[in-house]
Design brief:
Blueprint (H helix, E strand, L loop, with lengths): L1 E5 L25 H9 L8 E5 L25 H12 L11 H19 L3 H5 L3 H15 L10 H13 L14 H18 L7 H8 L6 H13 L1 H4 E3 L9 E3 L2 H13 L6 H30 L4 H35 L10 H10 L19 H9 L2 H9 L6 H19 L5 H14 L2 H9 L3 E3 L7 H11 L6 E5 L7 H11 L2 E5 L7 H12 L7 E3 L6 H14 L5 E3 L6 H12 L7 E3 L7 H13 L5 E3 L7 H8 L3 H4 L2 E3 L3 E2 L2 E2 L3 H11 L5 H21 L3 H21 L1
Parallel strand pairs: 1-2, 5-6, 6-7, 7-8, 8-9, 9-10, 10-11, 11-12
Antiparallel strand pairs: 3-4, 13-14
Helix pairs in contact: 2-3, 2-5, 5-6, 6-15, 6-16, 7-8, 7-11, 11-15, 12-13, 13-15, 13-17, 15-18, 18-20, 20-21, 21-22, 22-23, 23-24, 24-25, 25-26, 28-30, 29-30
GO molecular function: ATP binding
Organism: Aptenodytes forsteri (Emperor penguin)
Keywords: ATP-binding, Leucine-rich repeat, Nucleotide-binding, Repeat
Length: 733
């Protein structure tokens, strides 16, 4: 028989004969502790094998004569074992959720490869993954970042860290022999949390031994408190803090996982541990006076009935003043927590960092590209997860888990903090945030898990600009969930250059329906994505009036889907298909369906390799359209003859403006600045040589038209436009 006794530190065993009697009969009824002691004495079932697990501080509770062998379980001493764990865990079938495809399998292999490369660099993550439980945390975080495709996301980042702590510390008391019986997690929040918070406030991640001594307040502790600290340093310290592996910082400590510093700092603040000495004394004094006043009040109420003395009611009320006054001060603490959250969430120095999800991804998988030179000055530390974790800890589910860990956050406290946040967080969010910071704000609302608060915050967001944010499936799910808490229309949603694909559009479909102006430029959206856009535009609840799809490989098949959408849509007034590789056939398909549309006012088909025939066909159809009055056709392969024919189709004669060149006969086109602005914005994304050829032709055309006019005012206009074109050519060269 093999007995495995897990967690000896929870048992207070007495090996003295006077304390625990001898017992060799398995059938004899004795207390559980006596059974364990006699098993370890080898007096009961002497042939049985026994394995005992314990924290280091409790090892000596069993006399050495009863122990045959000691073994310390350290972790993954071999990096290859770490890699094997990651490979097995990240390659599990179905780990990418429903609809797992070959592409997801390739993504899993890519994750394993990137993680392995980062481990080989012998940086801090390799030291962290020495502990198997941190390997679990890394894999769970990667699953969350890469394989979340549900709306709302099935879990939160704060929930992952809270669950991780529950897995390791659920039911754990720091020292079972101590009368305070303080939970392990509560002690960690009070001590390590303070260190973490001080580090966040001073923007540092490395801590010296002096920093530790100061935060643990060693000089102010009693003997019993020092004993608790000794148990903590023996059993738990290395779990949260580890020696730094960076050159020149060998004698300092860092948090094993960087994000854990921000989580514990957030927990420290939300639990109300961040107090001044006056606040701590005030709380204790308030509780004492409160208890005394209850007893005195009972006596005074009896005496006042017998002896009607006038001063007794006054004395009675005076006893209640201090507790009431302190309760008001504690209400100010809630405001302070909300103020700290808002201040950290909207720090202007963090406005142009990557969003927090990309930061976490980089911390686990490393940065792609050349490594930093050891002598190079490192960037300033960023702590943007700190306020997000504060919001996440206040969610109902995380508060329930923390309650099990001995860290109680009352419902009333969470309610008061949420109310205080309305004054600070929502007000600050209305100032207009950069795209990455706005993504952080949306992620904060997701982590907070308070739909009523989120709905109130989102109603004030009429314009959502996330341009250049890499919109992973997780970020799309977060955006869809947060925006889904209300039904209001969004004036503008800018998703330019966001790495969107067909699955992203599918996740965001309910949000896109409510957007009046929708910017989807520079996203590599092909024909499959256009099929989703067709379904969007044909939906009876669609309110999209301005759709920009510039610089996407729409192609002929994509044009077919968009043409079908145009025929049945009733909301779209502006459509930009600039540089979408339509070709003549794509433009012809769109022209064929334009007649069925009754609302379009402006159509941009510039830079699509259209020839004279296709361009003239589009304009001929546009002439007969009820509302379409502007068609952009610049940077296409239109000949001089085609230009003259298009130029003859004047607005005052045929009812449509065709924007083809910068000239209009012997005058400058009214839209020359519009055309040049479009070219200027798109120079980084277009074929440089082809743009140069077009600009040379435009310059020649301007010079020719200038020579033909005798009007000095017009000549001056031509010279001004020519100078702008020459500047662009200079930049290209």
């Amino acid at each position: 028989v093999l007995f495995i006794l897990n967690g000896l530190e929870r048992l207070n065993l007495d090996f003295r004969l006077a304390g625990t009697e001898l017992c060799c009969d398995p059938n004899e009824p004795v207390p559980p502790s006596a059974i364990v002691v006699n098993l370890l004495r080898k007096y009961l079932l002497p042939e049985a094998s026994i394995i005992v697990t314990t924290r280091p501080s409790a090892v000596r509770r069993i006399p050495g004569k009863y122990v045959g062998r000691y073994a310390e379980i350290c972790g993954f001493s071999d990096t290859n074992l770490q890699k094997l764990y990651f490979q097995m865990r990240l390659s599990q079938p179905g780990c990418s959720g429903e609809g797992s495809t070959g592409r997801s399998s390739g993504e899993q292999e890519n994750l394993v490869e990137m993680l392995s490369r980062n481990l080989e660099r012998h940086n801090q993550i390799a030291a962290a993954c020495f502990l198997p439980s941190y390997c679990w945390l890394v894999c769970t975080t990667l699953h969350f970042l890469y394989f979340t495709r549900t709306v709302p996301p099935s879990q939160t980042l704060t929930g992952i860290y809270t669950s991780f702590l529950r897995l390791n510390f659920s039911g754990e008391v720091l020292d079972s022999t101590d009368s305070t019986n303080i939970s392990m997690m509560k002690y960690v929040a009070k001590t390590v949390g303070k260190l973490a918070y001080e580090g966040v406030m001073s923007r540092k991640t490395c801590f010296t031994e002096d920093d530790l001594q100061q935060c643990f307040e060693v000089e102010m502790k009693t003997e019993s408190e020092l004993n608790l600290l000794e148990v903590f340093r023996s059993d738990v310290f290395r779990f949260f803090l580890t020696p730094c592996v960076q050159l020149g910082k060998e004698h300092t400590f860092v948090f094993t996982i960087p994000a854990m510093q921000e989580y514990l700092a957030a927990l420290y603040v939300v639990l109300g541990e961040k107090k001044t000495l006056a606040q701590r004394v005030g709380k204790e004094l308030s509780e004492l006076i409160g208890k005394v006043s209850e007893d005195v009040a009972v006596v005074l109420s009896i005496v006042s009935k017998v002896l009607p003395l006038r001063f007794l009611p006054v004395l009675f009320n005076l006893l209640k003043i201090f507790p009431r006054y302190f309760s008001r001060l504690s209400g100010k603490d809630r405001d302070a927590i909300a103020h700290t959250m808002a201040e950290e969430l909207f720090k202007e120095e963090d406005y142009y960092n990557d969003d927090v999800l990309d930061q976490i991804n980089s911390s686990i998988l490393g940065m792609e590209g050349p490594m930093r030179h050891p002598d190079e000055v490192p960037d300033d530390e960023v702590f943007e997860l700190f306020p997000i974790f504060m919001g996440g800890i206040l969610s109902r589910r995380n508060r329930a888990i923390l309650q099990q860990l001995g860290c109680s956050i009352k419902n009333l406290a969470a309610f008061e903090i949420a109310n205080a946040m309305k004054k600070t967080v929502i007000r600050n969010s209305r100032k207009g945030l950069p795209p990455s910071e706005l993504m952080d704000y949306l992620f904060f609302l997701h982590e907070f898990q308070n739909e009523r608060f989120t709905a109130e915050a989102i109603r004030s967001l009429r314009t959502v600009n996330l341009s250049s944010v890499k919109m992973t499936p997780l970020k799309c799910s977060v955006l869809a969930y947060v925006m889904g808490t209300t039904c209001h229309e969004v004036e503008e949603l800018n998703l330019t250059s966001c790495n969107l694909d067909t699955s992203s559009l599918r996740i965001l479909f309910p949000v896109l329906l409510r957007c009046k102006a929708l910017h989807l430029q520079l996203n590599s959206l092909g024909s499959d994505a256009c099929k989703e856009i067709r379904d969007l535009l044909l939906h009876d609840k669609c309110v999209v009036s301005n759709l920009r799809l510039a610089n996407n490989p729409v192609g002929e098949q994509g044009a077919q889907y968009l043409a079908e959408a145009l025929a049945g849509n009733h909301s779209l007034t502006h459509l930009s298909l600039l540089h979408t590789t339509l070709g003549d056939r794509g433009a012809e398909v769109i022209a064929q369906h334009l007649a069925k549309n009754q609302h379009l006012q402006e159509l941009n088909l510039g830079y699509n390799s259209l020839t004279d025939t296709a361009a003239l066909h589009v304009v001929e159809v546009a002439k007969k359209h009820a509302t379409l009055d502007k068609v952009h056709l610049y940077f296409n392969d239109i000949s001089e003859d085609g230009k003259r024919e298009l130029d003859s189709l004047r607005m005052d004669r045929d009812g449509v403006r065709a924007l083809v060149f910068l000239t209009a006969g012997t005058d400058v086109s009214d839209y020359w600045s519009n055309i040049l602005n479009v070219v200027q914005r798109n120079l980084p994304f277009w074929d440089r040589e082809r743009v140069r050829q077009h600009l040379v032709l435009i310059l020649q055309d301007l010079e020719s038209s200038r020579r033909q006019t005798a009007n000095p005012w017009r000549k001056a206009k031509f010279l001004r436009v020519e100078s702008e074109v020459k500047k662009m050519l200079g930049k290209l060269q």
